[in-house]
Amino acid sequence: MNFVEPRTRGLFRIEWDTMTQYFDFIKKNGMTHNLINLAGHGTTRASIRGFNAAPMTGGDMKEMLGLLEQSMEEGACGVSLGLQYEPGIFANTDELREIAKLVKSKDKILTVHMRAYSALAPGYPMSTVKILFDYIMPFDGYEPHNVMAIDEMLNVARDTGVRLQLSHLIFVGTRTFKTCDKALERIDEAIKQGVDVKFDTYVYHCGQSILNVIFPAWFLAKVPQAYDDPKMLARLKSEWEQTVRFLGFGPENIQITHANHRDLNSYNGLFLSDIAKKRGLDWFANAIDFAKKSEGRAAILNHRYSNLSVIESLMVHPASLFMTDALPAPEGVQNPAMSGNFPRFFQLAREKKLIRLEEAVRKMTGATADRYVIKDRGYLKEGLAADVAVLDWNNVRDNNTLTETGEAPSGIEAVFMNGRQVLSKGKVDGSIKAGEVILS
Questions:
Q1: Which one of 16, 24, 341, 403 has the largest count of C-beta atoms within 10 Å of its C-beta?
Q2: DSSP single-letter state for residue 57
Q3: Domain range for residue 26?
Q4: pLDDT per residue over 83-131, tens digit each?
Q5: Are 414 and 421 a contacting pair, CB within 8 Å?
Q6: What CATH number is given to the structural domain containing 98?
Q7: Cis peptide bond N-terminal to 138, omega within 30
Q8: With left for phi above 0 and alpha for psi between -120 and 50, is residue 261 left, alpha or beta?
């Protein structure tokens, strides 16, 4: 497995050439968490041909599939797809089907960040006539892009029999919230037909990403030259303006958590709309400047990813698993889901009586272990790994706010990892490297 620095147009190879070397490096240096790995389609594809937007050639496809197979044989539990990011955004359905066949042959799991999580998305071609028509009469005569994205992956699973995990099912923009029922109907129908599909969900209305997630494929294919091309910028601005009007999602919903550039890091924690005002720029020029200077890698939190009604529907659904969709931020503003997401699941379950304590715990632990075929974890049983969290059901809660996003939760009394206590009375001992690499 070749690892590639994201958004680098040439190949930047890191220390490891195989999954085994990567695992050996981690074991040697130790880590604070348990780790089970998926083989990344995007990193593997980019290691062969960078961010080339053209369809894969037969030779490139064979090499990519060979590397993914090697990674799974060396302990990866499956393959992950990122179809709203480079280079996954350039992959066609035939490419995805070949990957799914490979994953199925290894009896592993295929996870996917889909092409779209909003009713109108940059992963699909946009029609000005349809957009303006549907702005007046929402969704009449056309399928919302997020539902199309679900259909694409369900069809791949139908064709190949692969075990499919739809990553962080969200509904971006207020106009997309209404598609939740339709999305769940598609998933339920596929399950009735025998498709092995489940999805992840989290309880925050915001989600962690990088700035280039808001760009369409045609623009990303020409980056970095596109940042200085007047015609491409004019087209992009027109599409973005229509998307903002149509979706109810815009620069006021995009929060910069780490600008990833020395001239812009002072704006960490602010929303793009407020930053534009402070800099005396229009919203589009400001967004392009952040993207250009950070090479699209400015870390962001996108808000209006859902509402409480959507979250409740996803929480109680029998095919849902609970996740955080969060990474720790070494610089800038933390994603509140890092510390608050699972406590907030418990809080909602308790206060709104959505699901029982036991079901909430299961969706975080045993159900996930079963889904990813992690055989010695996820349950409190003799002989299994001693990964244990001790919590106060009546008082566990999230303490984060919009501006204070790194607060510790209440009600988590102790955490043990592989039998070693790493949290006591709400305090984490980060010096304890109790984590292990879990091979599949």
A1: 341
A2: P
A3: 19-205+307-371
A4: 999 999 999 999 999 999 999 999 999 999 999 999 988 777 765 335 4
A5: yes
A6: 3.20.20.140
A7: no
A8: beta
Length of the chain: 440
Alpha-carbon distances of 331 from 79, 125, 286, rounded to whole Å? 29, 35, 21
For residue 232, the Cα-to-chain-centroid distance in whole angstroms is 28
Task: Report which secondary-structure segment, H or E, holds 107.
Answer: none
What does each C-alpha distance from 141 to 125, 130, 144, 151, 153 come to in angstroms?
Answer: 16, 9, 10, 17, 22
| pLDDT tens readout for residues 298-349 | 999 999 899 999 999 999 999 999 999 998 888 888 899 999 999 999 999 9
83 and 143 housed in the same domain = yes
Q: Tell me the C-alpha distance between 145 and 425, whole Å.
A: 46
Using left for φ > 0, alpha for ψ between -120 and 50, and beta otherwise, residue 372 falls in alpha
Q: In what order do the strands lie in the sheet with 109-113?
A: 39-40, 78-82, 109-113, 163-166, 197-201, 320-322
Q: Report the pLDDT averaged over residues 145-167.
A: 97
Pair (277, 414) in one structural domain = no
Q: Is residue 61 domain-shared with residue 154, that is, in the same domain?
A: yes
The total of structural domains in the chain comes to 3
Please indicate, yes or no, if residue 436 is contained in any of the structural domains. Answer: no
Range list of β-strands (E), 28-97: 39-40, 78-82
| pLDDT mean over 1-22 | 54
Report the alpha-carbon distance of residue 201 to residue 204 in Å, rounded: 9
| 3: CB partners within 8 A, 6+ apart | 13, 14, 16, 22, 43, 47
If you ran DSSP here, which 8-state letter would residue 280 be given?
T
Closest alpha carbon to 142 in 129, 130, 150:
130
Q: Do 74 and 120 have their domain in common?
A: yes
CA 207 – CA 218 distance, rounded (Å): 24
Question: What secondary structure does DSSP assign to 151-169, as a single string?
Answer: HHHHHHHHHH--EEEE-S-
Distance in angstroms between the alpha carbons of the first and the last residue of the chain: 16
Query: Is-contact 291 283, C-beta < 8 A?
Result: no
Q: Yes or no: say if 135 and 127 are a contact pair by the CB < 8 Å rule.
A: no
The CA-atom distances, in angstroms, between 4 and each of 40, 99, 437 are 10, 19, 21
Residue-wise over 237-259: b if at least 16 C-beta within 10 A, else e?
bebbebbbebbbbbbebbbbbbb
Is 8 contained in some domain?
A: no
Which tens digits make up the pLDDT trace of 354-397? 999 999 999 999 999 999 999 999 999 999 999 999 999 999 99
